[in-house]
Amino acid sequence: MKTFAYFDSSHEFPEEIIIAAQMNPYKILGKNDFSTELADQYIPQFMCANARSFLNQALEESSKWEGIAIAHGCDATNRQFDIWEQHVQTPFLYYIHNPLRTDRIAQRFFIREIKAMINALESKYRIKITLDQLEKAIQVSNNIKILLQSLSQLRIIKDISNSEYFNVVKYCVQNPKEEIISYLNSILSDWKTRNSFPINKIPIFLTGSDITHALWYELLEKVNLRVVRDDLTIGERYFATLIPTDKDPISNIAKYYLNIPRSSTKHPTNPRINYILKACKSEKIHGVVSQIIKYCETFAYDVPFLKSQLEVIHIPVIHVEREFTENIDQQISTRLEAFVELLEQNR
C-alpha cells in the first residue's frame, strides 16, 4: 500500500481520509539524526527546529511518498507551505485549514475543508472515497486509540519506561494501520506482565512542545521522572478521545479533531489547562514538567497561567526551554534533579 505523508504541529490532520483512500498516513517527524542542514537553506535558524527538521526530511525523502498534506497548526506550519511548494519534490501537495475555534461555525467550516480535500484526492488519484470507506477508517482509528488508551493506563501501575511509551505512539503515527492492531496487542500482553511501578520513580505530567525524539524522555527517566500522563501529539492528544459514530462520517471526523486535547496554538487556552488539571487531580501526579523547544513561543505564553492554576491545587511545576539537539543539556539535567529533590520532600 502506498504512503501519504502529512505535516502538522498538534494532531490537526484527519488521517482517516488517507486511510479511506487506501493509503498509509505517515506523520513527518524528522530524521533520528536531528539534521536540519538542508532546511536551513530556506528557513532561518531562529524558527522552530521541529518544523525545520520536518522540512529537512521531506527534502530528502519525498520521493518515497505519494503526496504530502500540511495542516494548519501553529505559525511555523502555517507560514511554510510556500517553501514546501517551491522546494519539495512531490506530485501532490495540499494545505488543509483547521479552525482555531470549536463552535458550530468552526465545525461547518472544517466539514467544508474535509470535503474539499476528499475532492482533491479523488481528482488527483482517480479514486472514489465513499462514506462507507470513511466509516471503516474511523473504526480502524478508534480500535487503535482504544488499545493505546489501555496501554497508557498501565503507565501509572506498571514499570513502563518513558521511551517505551513514546516509541509505541510514534510507531502508530508512522506505520501501516493494518500492522498496528497486532503490534499493540502484543505490546499490551507484555506490559500487563511487567513489574509494579518502581518506588524510586516519581509520576509526573508532561506538557509543552511536541517531542519528536526519545532522547528527552530518556533524560527524564535518568533523573527518575516517570511520565504517566501527558497532552502531547505523540501521546495522549492522539488517542485520548474517540471519533464519534453518531452522525455522518465527515461530520464525526470534523467534530473529533475540534474536541481533542487542545494545543497551546488553539484558543482559548482554558480547555488545555483544564485537561492538565483534571489529570493531576485524578491520577497520582506528583509534579508537572512543562517544556518547550527553543522559539516555541505559543507554549511559552501559556506558562504563567499554567503555573498559577497548578499552584491552586498544590502541584509543583518546572518549566524548561530545550534545544533541538542529540546532546544532553547538563544545565537542564541539573534543574530536573533539583526538581526531583523537591518532589521527594513532598512525598
From TrEMBL:
The keyword Zinc does not apply. It holds the Pfam family HGD-D. Keywords: Iron, Iron-sulfur, Metal-binding. One of its GO terms (molecular function) is iron-sulfur cluster binding. Belongs to the FldB/FldC dehydratase alpha/beta subunit family. This is 2-hydroxyacyl-CoA dehydratase family protein. It comes from Promethearchaeum syntrophicum. The lineage of its organism: Archaea, Promethearchaeati, Promethearchaeota, Promethearchaeia, Promethearchaeales.
